[in-house]
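ok trying again, last paste got cut off:
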Amino acid sequence: MSKRTLEGTNRKQKRTSGFRARMRSHTGQNVIKARRRRGRARLAV
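nice, full thing came through this time. structure:
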């Protein structure tokens, strides 16, 4: 059996789309706000 072509890394995922990464930029903060408004259980990864 061959190996999967795409295997994600947790560190990369957290660094790019984690909560702290979102709060760093103004647009990221808007994303968090929008998700709060919708009542999402998970705001960020």
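cool. The domain at 11-45 is CATH 1.10.287.3980 (Helix Hairpins). Residues 6 and 23 are 28 Å apart (CA to CA).
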